[in-house]
Amino acid sequence: MHIQDVHYTPIDEFELVERMQDVTRYQRLCSEYGVRGDGMEVFEALKHDIGKALDRYQAIVTSAVDPDEPDDLESVLALRPEGPRKLTDGVPAGYAERLRGAFYGRMAGCTLGAALEFESVDAMKDWAEYFGDKYPLEDYWSRIKNPTDPHYIVGKKIDLTRGHMDAVPPDDDTIYTLLGLLTMEQYGPDFTQEDMAEIWKRYLPLGPAGGAHGLRGCWWGERKMLTNLLDGMKLPEAGLYRNPNLQNIAAWTRADSFGYACPGNPEMAAKLAWKDASANHRRNGVYGSMFMAATIAAAFAVDDPMEAVRIGLTEIPKDCLFAEGIRWALEQKCANYREASDAVWARYAGMFNGSALTNALHVVMGLAIGGRDYTRVIGETVAMSGDNDCTGATAGSICGAVIGLKAIPEQWVRPFNGRMHIYLNEHPEYLPLEDVCNRFERLAEKFSGR
Known about the structure:
The chain is mostly helical. The chain is built from 20 helices and four strands. The strands form two sheets. A two-stranded antiparallel ribbon has the order 1-2. The protein has a two-stranded antiparallel ribbon with strand order 3-4.
């Protein structure tokens, strides 16, 4: 797959949204006219027609075949370029310090990006300048929109700002790291996708009604998969059914835990990430997860974030769209976030802003601009926009794994008070960060002996 083979067929998204708003307004109007029942008949027919359209879309994308982009693990591994596969025998020296750099670095990058997630480059810059924050950010935001609004079930938006934190604020991207940890603790490296699904169903909270459609705390393809599972559907169908997120970012936001558990072993990290990601992603959505897991695993054993990136690239099919994009990013010489963002969207105009590829390019280019300077890495990465709590988290994780916790400036870590705010069933409201790191250390020791 090559970028010249990708041709986007644009649709008028504004018109689509406007027509859906017309539907809701007509339904209200039916109620005001006293004919609500007739309106509901029309609405149910519309839902049926939309469902049929989604099924047709699903059939189209799931039947598409590209020899450069297989889904099964054996074929994926056969298409990789040469690579080191494993960098160390056993856990790398200095792993404990580097793990804390990666984990704390992930928490900080996520928190920085979550405050203005998906805001445009210009909107974030204007917001910072209006409130006097240096931009790109060198500390957490001083202000946030709608500060009293809820943030991931147990938090508020204001928790993301400087001076208002008492822990790592809750976020789905930090929860995914814990779900990976829980899966590997309970089932080991031989976990199945069904094992992973059981962990998700057990620990992710439902809404007040307790039903499948009350799910809170995860979005996009993860919400689709879990809703389907709770409705009685089995894997693999539950991960694919009416899921347009097959090549989106979410799988690689779940990849860090596999890199943490396999330090110095990018091949093993990538294989675990494939197993996790392919539950509800395909093709480049899966390769993105394998790439990030391998890059993080490699980062524990090298001294340059870009070396880790190049090693991560050897664990995915060499001619897939994702690999082509990463190679392109490595050739760019962007001086800052603005140049990087402009370059990405000039090349990938029309791609969804939450795609696995475009957001991964932000991570790679942020690492290239910032190098071993943690503040610059997450500041420049977040400033590129996109799904920038995810990109800030992963860039912070990779950089942190290379430089270690002691090299991360204190303003990023001190506000956490050594704990993270979470919303998992059967867990306390807060988890000590050191306890989580100790648990990853135990996994790494266990896995390295295999």
